[in-house]
Amino acid sequence: MKNSIKAKYVLIFSALLSLTIIACWLVNMLFLGRFYMSRKEAMLKESYARLDYVSNTYGESSDEFKSIFQMTTERNNYDILILDSDMKVLISNVMNNKTLSDKLIGYFLGFTESTEIIYKGERYTVQKSSDAMHSSDFLELWGVFSNGNLIVIRTPVSSIKDSVYIANLFLMYVGILAIAISIAIVYCVSTSITHPILQLVNISDRMAKLDFEARYEGTDCNEIGLLGEHINKLSETLEATISELKTANIELKNDLERKTEIDEMRKEFLSNVSHELKTPIALIQGYSEGLMDCVNDDEESKNFYCEVIADEANKMNTLVKSLLELNELEFGQNNVNLERFDITEVIKNCSSNIDILLKQNEIKFIFNQSEPIFVWSDEFKVMQVINNYLSNAIHYAKGDEKVVKVDVEKIDGKVRVCVFNTGDPIPEDVIPKLWTKFYKVDKARTREYGGSGVGLSIVKAAMEALNQEYGVINYENGVAFWFEVDGKSI
């Protein structure tokens, strides 16, 4: 990943470590030699003081002095020469005593060429000298013991330089190795730190795409673990909120669709009502104006005009009553009143009310059920349905022998009432539209018998209020409308 935290983390720590080691190496290069010379100077002084003490206490010929002398030369790689006051060698670890002895005598005599005084005290001097014969430099201490004997201690400076070089070289190798190991360690540590961060990045990316299934599963008890816990809570909250918003959006969309549908239904309703009332109003207006203008003075014409006006007014009254009845059913203003009653008796009562229409239209009515059949339903609504079915059947009955037949049968705890009339079957494509307000299959014939197209809408509203099934079945010789009610206690 470009500009990743892990890369920056490794780079920063590696750079800091590298700079630290380089700084240490530079400090060594610049100051280690000086420090080493300073320490060597101090060690020379310490060695002088120790040898002076032992010499003054035990003498140069004692075993104690010889032991200290040997230990000092071997441990520090010193060349040591001690002369007595007669310039005779008392003890030395140098093979060519003559050269070193002459140099020591020369120092006392004032011959200090090719030397650099580092320290000058009362009894000894520390200096840096050059040996042209051996092409080497030495750090020397020469002076006098408390007992008057002469001493010179020297150590080659080249060994100091070699030690400094080796130390710096070793530090460089160790530094490179330390940098490599540290980079590996930092990489591993940064990976363990950035892994949960990358997991959180992946979760947040999925959340941005509205995928809330991912959850942080780390068990860290630190800031990252706390952040992961909060992201999980945020994911749950966002998921719930978006779900609520989607639900509200769907409900709003449905409300808008219902509003649009209601507006369309209102427009259609007004159009249909206007259409249904326009003809009778026009007829009433025309015939009433004819009466007012005395178009015909004879009594028969006046009676005809009055009959037409009364008939059209009755049709409007019937339409208005049907619309009010439908409105009560559709908007739940008429509560369902369940009761137990004999549906056979209800059918007989409804058929007796239309007996005159049956005779006027020369229709044979058949209802063979005589035994009581008790049902549980709203008796008034059931009567509305039966009356509308019977009225519809009477006006659409056709054939050489016009027949309206009512059958009642029990089906799985239900009682089905079926009203059949002879005539033409209803086209299958218009059956779903029959229950729509003001829909008429045959507008001319509907107008002829005074129908408004509201009757089957009343049936639909009543049956839906009762939460019962209803429908229509086509036969070769006619049509049957049916509905069901509960035949036993609920």
Features:
13 strands; six-stranded antiparallel beta sheet; alpha+beta; five-stranded mixed beta sheet; single chain; 490 residues
Describe this structure in words.
It is built from eleven helices and 13 strands. A hairpin with a 4-residue loop joins strand 4 (124-131) and strand 5 (136-144). Helix 4 (157-208) runs parallel beside helix 5 (223-292). Residues 443-451 have low confidence and may be disordered. By secondary structure, it is of the alpha+beta class. The chain is rod-shaped, with a radius of gyration of 63 Å. It has helices at 5-58, 63-76, 97-109, 157-208, 223-292, 299-330, 343-353, 355-360, 379-396, 443-449, 455-466; strands spanning 79-83, 89-92, 115-120, 124-131, 136-144, 150-156, 339-342, 364-366, 374-377, 403-411, 414-422, 470-475, 478-486. 59% of the residues lie in helices and 17% in strands. The strands form three sheets. It has a six-stranded antiparallel β-sheet, with helices on both faces.
